[in-house]
Structure formats: C-alpha cells, structure tokens
Design goal:
about 350 residues, 6-stranded mixed beta sheet, globular
Amino acid sequence: MAFVIALLTGRCTYSLGDGGYDLSRFRENAELSSVPDELRGIVQTNGEAARAISAQNDGGDLRFVIIGDTISDNNGTFRTFLGEIAALDPRPSFIVHLGDRVVSPVVDYYGTYLRAISDPPCPILHVDGNHDVREEGERISRAFFGDKDFFFDRDDMRFVFMSNVHGDGDPGFSRKQLAWLEDKLKAPYPPRKFFFAHVPPKAPFKKINPGLYSLFTPRLENEGEFLDILARHNVVLAAFGHRHVHASVVHNGALMIITGGGGQRNFLEPAVDEPRFTKKNHYTLVDIPTSGPYEPFEGVLSCMGKGKEILSISSFFQASPFANGGDISVALRPYPASAGGPFRPGTPASTRLGSSSRTP
C-alpha cells in the first residue's frame, strides 16, 4: 500500500506558469548558496519577516493565516487565496507557509513561487516541506528564506518554527533540535506558545488514518519526546501540513491542526467522518483578541475555502496560568459561523468554555 501511494503521488505533474524568476544558476553551479545579486530583496527572509511582525507589538487583537502544500497548476489556487487574504478586513498580520511550495523541476517551480509572493499582502514565514529541500531546493530555501529553525515574539505570544524534513530521509526531530525547542518553550515569558512544522506527528491524528491509510502519516523520529515537550510547556497551538486536508484535535492539552489544503492534489486522502475535517482546498484563519495575563486566552479557528467560504469554525480556550489550579490545557468547541463571513476577533462564545482533560 505504501509503495502504491508513493508511486501514484510521485507521478503527479503540474503545469508551470510563465514569468518566474530565473534560478537556473542554482542548477548549473552546485556551490551556489546565496541569492544572485539581481534577485536580492525580491522576498523577505524568515528573519526579516519575523522582525517586521515583532515590530507590530501593540497589545491589540491578532489575526494570522496558516496555509500549506500550495503546489497547483500555475500556482492558481495559491494565487487565488493570496488575493482573498489581501481582501480580508482586518488584513492578517502575517502568513505562515507550512511547506511544499514546489515540485520537480525544483529550480523552475521555485522561480514561479518566488514571483507569486513578490508582492504579498503581509509578511510570509516559511517552513520547509519535503518537496522544498529536494534537488537544488535546500540551497534555494536557505538562500532566500534563511534560518529553518527560528522563533519570534509578539506581545505575550511566542511563535516557534522548525524543519522536520531531511531530504529523502525519514521526517522528525534530532536530539539537538529537541534541545533547542525545549529551550525556546521553557521560558516563562511570553507565556503563550505556538509551534509550526511540515510533517504532523502520527499519534494525535489516528482518527483520520483509518486502516492502511495510517501509512500516509509515518511516526516522526523522536515523536514521543517531541509531543511531551509540547505538553509540558503548555503549547496553545501546533500546526502542520503535509497531509492535504484540514483536521483539528486537542492532544495532551494542546490544539493540533493539519492545514495542508493550499492547492496540492489529495485524491488518495481518505474522506473521514470527523468534525472539522475537509478535503477541500483551504487555508486556516486564526483570530486572537487581546487579553491580559490574568484573563483566559481565547481565539477563533476558521477553515476558509475558496470564495471566503467558511468550511468549519471553532473556538479555542486556554485558562490563565494564574487560575484554574494550574491546569491550562486547551479546550476546543464549535463556534457559530457568522453570516457575514470572516470577522474581527472577539469573545468566542456566550457560555464560558471549560478546560479539556489531557488525552493519552
């Protein structure tokens, strides 16, 4: 089954649009690892984007977008979503791209991707996907986006980004990476932590992997230790791509989502009867109203399809670390969709949300 899946997905081809930047020198020169002079500044590095976002610290509401696996013919689906994101009111502060933005030939597709994001609606932060680091992709990714494990702070929130893909090797996190992650999450301030990587862990998403489909999501290297770190440090939300679906669950007190519907084909993904699950093309919109350190931390998670269709919407809640006996597990529940579509962040529900228990 795994061989058949790999064979079929590997044979997927996409048409390539015209007008991309010429990156052929990365193919011709195996030593090239920096941006050619004439292409400097066409996109922000992760560091530049993070600094721009951190400079927005104002204690106000926060809105951001998570999208993954945007490979599509001529980048058509991704371009559509970028246009719709630009039209959101309020416009998001930033976009997180969870990886898989190119396919083979990587040099050519990277040129068209960079053209697509040369005038983005807001800063874009890039996580590496397994497709992105193949062929010349690792060198291109580092040249244009810089660090692959990084973090930044905004108000009372810390956002941590990591690569868990290793060329054609098994996905996961090295011991050195886990030590780095532990160090970034153990800091008492900022108290609210968010995490982003490409390949999801297997354990939290068992319900969307029926039978032989469990082979779609391999167990990560050092997966148990990774999940334990997220739980011990009370991570609010951990987001992943790789699977071309949307799914959201609470696992060991943390809200975990897969949001990989940015354009890549998913005919082999199983259609499962689970709440907040879809195979439709989508991105995820996160709205977080401002709150003080002694107040509950609340937010709204909206899975957005084409045409600003709300495919699912949920509210999430985390108690103040100074209240509720120290249990700050995240709770997740449905949220009534507004007929007006995307909206400003606000209190998610008229009835106070309870705290979830930690799941095994």
